[in-house]
Write a sequence for this structure.
RNA sequence: GUGGGUGUAGCUCAGUUUGGUAGAGCCCCUGGUUGUGGCCCAGGACGUCGUGGGUUCAAGUCCCAUCACUCACCCCA
């Protein structure tokens, strides 16, 4: 038997309705906030991610699916979407027509990590990106939009974590202060943190080892080192969030894993999924467009983890079954020939219709109708054909009515309306 | 990449200690009811015991390897 690849998964029919419900909810909401869809390839030149995400990040160092696209060129299955959106914004010169662009995209990402609950090697994200707006209002508006999205999906137990990562003017000062602080604590840090100390000191703040948390208890905080502009921006984001009634926690230890973030960084966390608690995350990346050879344009965006979100939504209420409105039980070849035609006609009218061609006994057909939770069964045998009238059985009330074959489709449509079946 | 747990029927799991010809419940199929589902009763189908090797007269059981799933670390959505 050929099995799927480690870390990949099938999304089966008992989940897909939930997935589409989430996507439909997001699309409707995002459109109301002025977003338009962009669809992008899932492979790009490896260089795009190396330059945007950062050579020293875990993603680029060890998690990317990169292979030869041609003799000269390495290509990569995208590990995230922002880089591609930025690439397109620049390459297609979207800024020339209108610098302010609000874009969303939905699709799979690929990272070669060890799989675990809520983490797959192919996972799905909804991404939203805004180009050309520097105002802190847009930061707050994006978070408000996210919060509203989760409210519409009736997700509870969420928290908003907020931080500011500063900008090229102030972050270096902070990094230096942090480095010298960490140097004084080397003995009390775990071995991972000792390694991070040089490579990426900000990451030490994020360590979950208790002894490390203790050691960095009075470590310098980025927010104390923000330059005047960054501090002003951060304050404005916070007051705008308060204005909209969004609860948030300041989390100085919130560090994003990608190098391109500046200023506002945020994460939406759940308490219901174990270790993989981030279901959305994002932030501002004002330097990235320029870094990738585009014009100087501020930008901000976020990603929602669909796999984790779908798991949360289904924890609340398992997906509703798409049960048939009508199940046709035809007895004998002559009946099958007629009902085949009726079945098509009913389906065309938007009635969920299932017909069984197997030629089994009526008892067996009724069993199947019951199993697939059909609301009604249409029983058609030689007697009914002869009488030009068929039997319609309501599977819940067990009521049976005789329906003339003439005008049957309209009769059934009306009948279903009385059952509150939307046709 | 590192560590723990688990792989036996479509599903949930016994059986492994102490080697001796694979089990239960659910599901599925047929009949009891000539053309009426769920409940009940009777009967039936379904397994290379994750895979490959080894030890043995004999391996689901012991040994080695390997794969997968799962949880956690790392990191992130």
């Amino acid at each position: 038997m050929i099995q799927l690849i480690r870390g990949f998964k099938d999304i089966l029919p008992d989940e897909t309705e939930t997935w589409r419900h989430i996507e439909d909810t997001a699309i409707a909401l995002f459109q109301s906030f002025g977003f338009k869809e962009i669809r992008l390839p899932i492979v790009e030149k490896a260089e795009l991610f190396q330059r945007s995400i950062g050579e020293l990040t875990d993603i680029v160092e060890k998690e990317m699916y990169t292979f030869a696209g041609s003799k000269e060129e390495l290509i990569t299955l995208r590990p995230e979407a922002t880089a591609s959106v930025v690439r397109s914004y620049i390459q297609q010169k979207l800024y020339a027509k209108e610098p302010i662009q609000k874009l969303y995209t939905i699709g799979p990402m690929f990272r070669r990590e060890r799989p675990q609950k809520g983490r797959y090697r192919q996972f799905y994200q909804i991404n939203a990106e805004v180009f050309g707006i520097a105002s802190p209002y847009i930061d707050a508006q994006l978070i408000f939009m996210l919060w509203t999205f989760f409210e519409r999906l009736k997700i509870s137990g969420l928290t908003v974590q907020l931080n500011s990562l500063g900008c090229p003017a102030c972050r270096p000062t902070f990094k230096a202060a942090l480095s010298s602080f960490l140097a004084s604590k080397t003995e009390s840090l775990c071995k991972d943190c000792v390694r991070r100390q040089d490579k990426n000191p900000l990451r030490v703040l994020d360590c979950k080892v208790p002894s490390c948390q203790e050691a960095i208890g009075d470590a310098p905080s980025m927010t104390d080192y923000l330059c005047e502009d960054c501090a002003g921006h951060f304050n404005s984001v916070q007051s705008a969030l308060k204005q909209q009634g969004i609860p948030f926690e300041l989390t100085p230890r919130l560090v994003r894993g990608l190098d391109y973030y500046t200023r506002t960084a945020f994460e939406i966390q759940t308490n219901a999924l174990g270790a993989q608690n981030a279901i959305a995350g994002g932030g501002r990346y004002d330097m990235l467009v320029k870094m990738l050879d585009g014009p100087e344009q501020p930008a901000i965006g976020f990603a929602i983890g669909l796999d984790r979100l779908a798991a949360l939504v289904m924890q609340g209420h398992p997906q509703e079954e798409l049960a048939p409105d009508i199940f046709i039980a035809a007895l004998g070849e002559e009946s099958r020939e007629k009902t085949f035609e009726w079945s098509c006609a009913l389906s065309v009218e938007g009635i969920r219709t299932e017909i069984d061609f197997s030629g089994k006994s009526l008892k067996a057909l009724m069993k199947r109708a019951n199993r697939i939770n059909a609301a009604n069964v249409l029983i058609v045998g030689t007697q009914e054909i002869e009488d030009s009238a068929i039997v319609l059985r309501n599977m819940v009330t067990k009521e049976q009515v005789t329906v003339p074959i003439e005008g049957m489709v309209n009769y059934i449509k009306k009948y279903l309306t009385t059952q509150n079946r939307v046709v």
